[in-house]
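STRUCTURE:
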């Protein structure tokens, strides 16, 4: 069986880090087929306890993939592709 391709995405967060608002991070190598939900789970598993992305409820987030709200795609099940840009915004901070 052929292994899943490896993809890389850019993650931006807004309203989640105080003075670091607008912080950009790379998610590292992801397996092809990773979803928006799976990416959030991976980010949370590597984050520090004081990172608001760890504690905020997903319903409080506006999530964009390449500038499009996930509600207009496949929601949290949206499959990510190589070089996608994912933005997590706290709704009270501009959503």
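SEQUENCE:
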């Amino acid at each position: 069986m052929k292994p899943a391709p490896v993809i890389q995405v850019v993650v931006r967060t807004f309203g989640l880090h105080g003075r670091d608002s607008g912080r950009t991070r790379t998610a590292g190598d992801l397996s092809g087929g990773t979803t928006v939900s799976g990416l959030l789970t991976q980010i949370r598993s590597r984050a520090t306890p004081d990172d608001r992305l760890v504690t905020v409820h997903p319903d409080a987030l506006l999530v964009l993939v390449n500038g499009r709200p996930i509600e207009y795609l496949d929601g949290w099940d949206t499959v990510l592709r190589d070089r996608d840009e994912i933005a997590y915004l706290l709704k009270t901070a501009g959503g």
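REMARK: The helical segments are 36-46, 52-55.
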